[in-house]
Write a structure and sequence with these properties.
Elements (H helix, E strand, L loop, with lengths): L10 E7 L4 E6 L14 E7 L4 H11 L3 H8 L6 E5 L2 E11 L3 E10 L3 E6 L8 H9 L9 H14 L1 H21 L3 H33 L7 H66 L21 H22 L17 H6 L4
Helix pairs in contact: 4-7, 5-6, 5-7, 6-7, 7-8
Amino acid sequence: MTVDPDAPPSTLHILAYGRDDYVEKDLAQVSEIREFLGHYPVVWVNVDGLGNLATLMQLATLFDLHPLAMEDVVNVHQRAKVEPFGNRTFLVSRMVHLGESLEPEQISLFVGPNFVVSFQERAGWDCLESVRERIRRKVTRIRDAGPGYLAYSLLDAVVDNFFPVLEAFGERLETLEDRIILAPDRNAIAEVHGVKRELLTIRRSIWPQREALNVLVRDDVPNFDNDTRLYLRDVYDHAVRIIDLVETYREICSDLMDLYLSSVSNRMNEVMRVLTVISTLFIPLTFIAGLYGMNFDPDSSPWNMPELRWYLGYPLCIALMILISAGQVYFFWRKGWMFGGQWDAPVLPVNSTDSSSQRPS
């Protein structure tokens, strides 16, 4: 077994409890665990950080943990799974934390006849504090149950932690939708891509976890009795709901990308419509100006632009241009092409017979 040289150092925390008493403390050495084994019905040892090879080897020796399972503990890119090793059960799960970005983390559990050993990649954050608080306060049946129920509680906390993370993603998607509708920009669509990528990470974390939970519910796994399997069904249902939410949010991301493209296309159409209207307005004016800009001599023939010698020729030409422009603007407005005008809606005749038959008697 080799550990990652960049992994943080290992720290030990123990929480041993029974129906009437519990003890909780940080440990400096693995040998301190021996004084709790056999004195409490359940001993939970949590290891934060996987950088201390000697500590991990001592724990494997003390609790008789299989070397192949310990290899999966230190190689932290494992799929969620359940593997029995004699009277020990090895579980791999993944929990997520949403800080500035999504931070997935592997958590490994060994469940024995009277102990649970959990391994986390790093210290500083986990979603297991609610389980510790339940043990301290004895508000549920956890103090009366065995290590299988403790493992269920840990898995339940890990799975339920996905819900607030997904809720945060839902709020981000609503904000991005408003941004894309009001003022679409490249930054917004880049954020949508980022959310979709993080949702894919969540999907990769929770999908194998559902399969592992199904194994715990369906198969006869050591240290998990029938009563605990009933509770594990609820965790399985939560995992299915999370998968549904992830798929829904991924579809929303795809819809937002389509919405962005549609918004950009609509804005481009608006710009092109304005430019087209302006160009169309100037087409007849350019024709008139070009017509009277030709170099014909009225003295050579009475048909060579006799209006060039009219006394009011220039004002009449300007008035004609203004009249044509005003007519075009009115026509465009009636068609709904500018100034928010509407198409002329046909007036449908009212059938007096049908309307009277719909009146209440």
